[in-house]
C-alpha cells in the first residue's frame, strides 16, 4: 500500500465573473507564499496567470493557468480560471477536479446575479466553495457605507446560493477607505498593510455590536449542522475557537456552508488571512474523491484530465488531477506511457518524480487522451469513468477558410487539436453550403481560436457570416416533357421522357416512381431518369437544393441504337428544368427549436427577443431545480439565430443562455424571400462579399 501524504495536498480553483480579480488574487497568493518575489500587473500583462499571448492581447484570461506553491506545510495547486462566460467550459472542466473553489466577486450587490450559473454548477456537483469579495478598497463611498454595503452584499449573495452564506470576517473602514477586518472566529481585529501581513489591533469600539451580531449569525448557521454547538448557544456558553474552526472545516468540506472572506487582491489586503483559512479549512482531497464514488481505500492510480494544452512547439500536455493512489515518472495510464510529469507555474514547468492524491500535474505526450478522460494504471479494474463537465452547446458560428487554399488539410488537423484543448469548440463542413463552420461560445471565443490558428499553426484565416442552408420546394404540379437528341459523328444520343412533378407534404423529402407501360422507356434506362432528376434537384430554379417533391416517370420513347442511360439522364434534367419553373417554386428556411434560459426577471424580455426575431413562442416554465430561472421554448428561423447570444447576454447581464436544434423547414415569407434571393444573386455576381481576414 502506498504511503501517500494525501492530506497535505490541496487544489483550489479560482473562479468568478469576468475581471473580478482572479489573476490578481493568484499573483498575490503566490507572492505571499514566497513563490514569486516580484508581482506582475494586469496592465503589463506579466502576471503568472497572464501567460498566453491571446490573454495578454485582450487583458483577460482565456484558459486555465495552474500554479503550484507551498504554504503552512501544505502543497497547493491553484487553478486560475477564465471569468468570461465565453470560456466557461474551461472553468467547468477545471472545477471537476477541484477540491475547493474560491469564488472571486466584486462588491457590487447589483452584479451578484452574474454569479448565479457558477453557484448552480458548484451546487450541482457539490464542490465546496468559499467567496472572496475582492476590490473592497473601493467599496466604501461614505462613513455609513461600510455596514450597509457589507450586509447588502451578503444578502445579495444569499439570493444566488442554495447553501447558507457564512461571513468569517467583518470589515473595518475609515471614511471611504477599507483599513482592516475583524476575524469573526477569534474576534481579533487587524489593520491591513499594502504588500505585507496585517497587524493585530484592538477592536474598534463602534463596531462591537455589529461584529457581535455578525458573529452570532455565523455561529447560528454553523449550529444548524452541529447539535453540540446549538446547545452551547442556547445555554449562552461561549464555544471554544477550536470547536468553531472544526465546524467550519467540516461544514465547508461537506459543502453545507459558503464561508465569505474579502479584501483587495492587488493591495494584498485579506490575502494572508485567506491563505491561513485555506490551510485550516480546505477539505482533504479524499473528501472530494469520496463524493465522486472513490473510497480512497485503493492505491490503484486514478487521475482525470482537466485541461489539454498543445505547446507552441507542438508538444501535448494533459493537466490531470490525481484522484487516487500516486503517479510515478513514466507511469502507463490507459495503455499510454507518460513521457514526463511536471508541476506548473503558469508557463514554467518543473519535473517531478511522484504526484500524490490531490495533486494536479501535467503529463506529457498522452496521445489520444482528451479533456475529461479518466486515466488509470489498471483500466480493467475501473468501475466507471469519472463524470465530465457537460459540454456547452455551441451558440455562435463563423464560416472560415484558410487564406491559402492548399492549407485545408492543415486546418482540419489544427482544429482537431484545438477541440481536444477546448471541447466547447466544434466545426463542421456544411453539406449544402460547403462552408466550414466554426462553432463556439461567443465572438471573443471564436476570435481567440482564429488568433491561435494564425499564431500557433501559421494558418491565417478568412471569415464570413455562415450562409443559411435554405432549401426550396414547389407549390403546384405539372407534367413536363424532356427530349434529348444529339447527333455527333458515330451513333447519336436519344432519350425522351414525360414526368409528373408534384409537391409533397413538408418533411417528406423526395420520391421517385414510374408508371411506364409497354416498355415506352426500357427498364435499363429508368435508373438514368432517376439520376437525372436527383442531380437536377441539387439546385432548383431558385438556386437551392429541392425537397418535398415527388416525380413520376409516366411515358417516353426510345431509339433502338441511339438510346442510353446517359441520354435518358439528360432528358430527365431537361424535363425537370422546364417543369419545375412552372410549379410555383418557393424558398424554405430551417427552423430550430430554442430553449432560452434566464432569471425570471427577464422572462418578458425573452418573449420580446424571440418575437422580434420572427420566433414563435411554444411555452415557458420554471427551470427544474433552479430557483428563480425560467425557460422559454420557441421556434426560431435559423437566419435569426446568428447574433441571438450577443443580444441575450446583453439583456441578461451575461447569464442567459440557450440550447437549440434543427426542427423543420418552413416557407420564407414572400417579401423576405425576395430579399434573400436578391442577396444570393448579388453574392454570386461578386457583390455583397463580407469576408474578413484574421
Ligand atoms: N481596485 C482594485 N482593482 C483590482 C483589484 N484586483 C484586481 N483589480 C483590477 O481588476 C481588473 C481585472 O483584474 P484581473 O486579475 O485581470 O481579473 P480576472 O478576474 O483574472 O479577469 P478574467 O480572468 O479575465 O475574468 C484589473 O484591471 C485589475 O487591476 C483590487 O483589489 N482592487
TrEMBL record:
<dbReference type="InterPro" id="IPR035649">
    <property type="entry name" value="EFG_V"/>
</dbReference>
<dbReference type="InterPro" id="IPR047872">
    <property type="entry name" value="EFG_IV"/>
</dbReference>
<protein>
    <submittedName>
        <fullName>Elongation factor G</fullName>
    </submittedName>
</protein>
<dbReference type="Pfam" id="PF00679">
    <property type="entry name" value="EFG_C"/>
</dbReference>
<dbReference type="GO" id="GO:0003746">
    <property type="term" value="F:translation elongation factor activity"/>
</dbReference>
<dbReference type="InterPro" id="IPR035647">
    <property type="entry name" value="EFG_III/V"/>
</dbReference>
<dbReference type="Pfam" id="PF14492">
    <property type="entry name" value="EFG_III"/>
</dbReference>
<dbReference type="Pfam" id="PF22042">
    <property type="entry name" value="EF-G_D2"/>
</dbReference>
<dbReference type="InterPro" id="IPR014721">
    <property type="entry name" value="Ribsml_uS5_D2-typ_fold_subgr"/>
</dbReference>
<dbReference type="InterPro" id="IPR005517">
    <property type="entry name" value="Transl_elong_EFG/EF2_IV"/>
</dbReference>
<keyword id="KW-0648">Protein biosynthesis</keyword>
<dbReference type="InterPro" id="IPR020568">
    <property type="entry name" value="Ribosomal_Su5_D2-typ_SF"/>
</dbReference>
<dbReference type="Pfam" id="PF03764">
    <property type="entry name" value="EFG_IV"/>
</dbReference>
<dbReference type="InterPro" id="IPR000795">
    <property type="entry name" value="T_Tr_GTP-bd_dom"/>
</dbReference>
<dbReference type="InterPro" id="IPR009000">
    <property type="entry name" value="Transl_B-barrel_sf"/>
</dbReference>
<dbReference type="InterPro" id="IPR027417">
    <property type="entry name" value="P-loop_NTPase"/>
</dbReference>
<dbReference type="InterPro" id="IPR009022">
    <property type="entry name" value="EFG_III"/>
</dbReference>
<keyword id="KW-0251">Elongation factor</keyword>
<dbReference type="InterPro" id="IPR000640">
    <property type="entry name" value="EFG_V-like"/>
</dbReference>
<keyword id="KW-0547">Nucleotide-binding</keyword>
<dbReference type="Pfam" id="PF00009">
    <property type="entry name" value="GTP_EFTU"/>
</dbReference>
<feature type="domain" description="Tr-type G">
    <location>
        <begin position="7"/>
        <end position="286"/>
    </location>
</feature>
<keyword id="KW-0342">GTP-binding</keyword>
<dbReference type="InterPro" id="IPR041095">
    <property type="entry name" value="EFG_II"/>
</dbReference>
<dbReference type="InterPro" id="IPR053905">
    <property type="entry name" value="EF-G-like_DII"/>
</dbReference>
Amino acid at each position: 500500500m502506498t504511503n501517500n501524504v494525501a492530506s497535505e495536498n490541496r487544489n483550489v480553483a479560482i473562479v468568478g465573473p469576468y475581471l473580478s480579480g482572479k489573476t490578481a488574487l493568484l499573483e498575490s497568493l503566490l507572492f505571499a507564499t514566497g513563490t514569486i518575489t516580484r508581482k506582475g500587473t494586469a496592465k503589463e500583462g506579466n502576471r503568472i496567470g497572464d501567460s498566453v499571448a491571446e490573454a495578454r492581447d485582450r487583458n483577460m484570461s482565456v484558459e486555465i493557468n495552474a500554479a503550484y506553491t507551498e504554504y503552512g506545510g501544505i502543497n497547493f495547486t491553484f487553478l486560475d480560471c477564465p471569468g468570461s462566460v465565453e470560456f466557461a467550459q474551461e472553468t467547468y472542466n477545471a472545477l471537476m477536479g477541484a477540491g475547493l473553489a474560491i469564488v472571486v466577486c466584486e462588491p457590487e450587490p447589483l452584479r451578484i446575479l452574474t454569479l448565479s450559473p457558477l453557484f448552480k454548477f458548484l451546487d450541482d456537483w457539490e464542490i465546496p466553495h468559499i467567496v472572496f469579495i475582492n476590490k473592497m478598497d473601493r467599496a466604501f463611498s461614505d462613513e455609513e457605507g461600510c455596514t450597509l454595503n457589507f450586509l447588502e452584499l451578503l444578502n445579495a449573495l444569499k439570493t444566488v446560493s442554495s447553501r447558507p452564506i457564512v461571513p468569517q470576517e467583518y470589515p473595518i473602514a475609515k471614511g471611504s477607505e477599507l483599513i482592516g477586518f475583524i476575524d469573526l472566529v477569534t474576534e481579533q481585529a487587524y489593520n491591513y498593510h499594502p504588500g505585507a501581513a496585517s497587524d493585530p489591533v484592538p477592536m474598534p469600539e463602534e463596531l462591537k455590536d455589529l461584529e457581535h451580531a455578525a458573529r452570532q449569525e455565523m455561529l447560528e448557521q454553523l449550529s444548524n449542522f452541529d447539535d453540540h454547538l446549538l446547545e452551547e448557544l442556547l445555554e449562552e456558553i461561549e464555544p471554544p475557537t477550536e470547536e468553531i474552526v472544526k465546524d467550519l472545516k467540516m461544514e465547508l468540506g461537506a459543502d453545507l456552508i459558503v464561508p465569505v472572506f474579502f479584501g483587495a487582491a492587488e493591495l494584498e489586503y485579506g490575502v494572508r488571512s485567506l491563505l491561513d483559512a485555506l490551510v485550516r479549512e480546505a477539505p482533504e482531497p479524499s473528501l472530494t474523491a469520496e463524493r465522486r464514488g472513490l473510497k480512497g481505500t485503493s492505491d490503484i492510480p486514478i487521475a482525470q484530465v482537466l485541461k489539454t494544452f498543445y505547446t507552441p512547439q507542438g508538444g501535448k500536455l494533459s493537466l490531470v488531477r490525481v484522484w487516487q493512489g500516486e503517479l510515478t515518472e513514466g507511469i502507463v495510464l490507459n495503455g499510454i506511457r507518460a513521457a514526463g510529469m511536471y508541476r506548473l507555474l503558469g508557463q514554467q514547468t518543473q519535473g517531478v518524480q511522484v504526484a500524490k492524491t490531490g495533486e494536479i500535474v501535467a503529463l506529457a505526450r498522452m496521445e489520444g487522451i482528451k479533456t475529461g478522460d479518466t486515466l488509470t494504471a489498471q483500466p480493467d479494474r475501473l468501475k466507471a469513468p469519472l463524470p465530465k463537465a457537460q459540454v456547452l452547446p455551441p451558440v455562435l458560428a463563423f464560416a472560415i477558410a484558410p487564406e491559402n487554399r492548399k492549407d485545408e488539410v492543415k486546418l482540419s488537423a489544427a482544429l482537431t487539436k484545438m477541440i481536444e484543448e477546448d471541447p466547447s469548440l466544434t466545426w463542421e463542413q456544411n453539406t449544402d453550403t460547403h462552408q466550414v463552420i466554426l462553432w463556439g461560445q461567443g465572438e471573443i471565443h471564436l476570435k481567440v481560436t482564429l488568433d491561435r490558428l494564425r499564431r500557433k499553426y501559421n494558418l491565417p484565416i478568412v471569415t464570413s457570416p455562415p450562409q443559411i442552408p435554405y432549401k426550396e420546394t414547389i407549390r403546384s404540379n405539372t407534367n413536363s416533357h424532356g427530349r434529348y437528341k444529339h447527333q455527333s459523328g458515330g451513333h447519336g444520343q436519344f432519350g425522351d421522357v414525360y414526368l409528373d412533378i408534384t409537391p409533397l407534404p413538408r418533411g417528406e423529402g423526395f420520391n421517385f416512381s414510374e408508371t411506364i407501360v409497354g416498355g415506352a422507356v426500357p427498364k435499363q434506362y429508368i435508373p438514368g431518369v432517376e439520376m437525372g432528376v436527383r442531380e437536377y434537384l441539387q439546385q432548383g430554379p431558385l438556386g437551392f437544393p429541392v425537397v418535398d417533391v415527388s416525380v413520376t416517370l409516366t411515358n417516353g420513347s426510345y431509339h433502338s441504337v441511339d438510346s442510353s442511360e446517359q441520354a435518358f439522364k439528360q432528358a430527365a434534367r431537361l424535363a425537370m428544368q422546364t417543369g419545375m419553373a412552372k410549379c410555383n417554386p418557393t424558398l424554405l428556411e430551417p427552423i430550430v427549436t430554442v430553449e432560452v434560459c434566464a432569471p425570471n426577471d427577464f422572462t418578458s424580455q425573452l418573449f420580446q427577443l424571440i418575437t422580434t426575431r420572427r420566433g414563435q413562442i411554444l411555452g415557458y416554465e420554471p427551470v427544474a431545480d433552479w430557483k428563480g430561472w425560467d425557460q422559454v421554448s420557441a421556434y426560431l428561423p435559423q437566419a435569426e439565430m446568428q447574433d441571438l447570444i450577443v443580444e441575450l447576454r446583453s439583456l441578461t447581464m451575461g447569464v442567459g443562455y440557450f440550447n437549440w436544434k434543427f426542427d423543420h423547414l418552413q416557407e420564407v415569407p414572400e417579401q423576405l424571400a425576395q430579399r434573400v434571393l436578391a442577396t444570393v444573386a448579388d453574392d454570386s455576381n461578386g457583390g455583397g462579399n463580407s469576408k474578413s481576414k484574421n
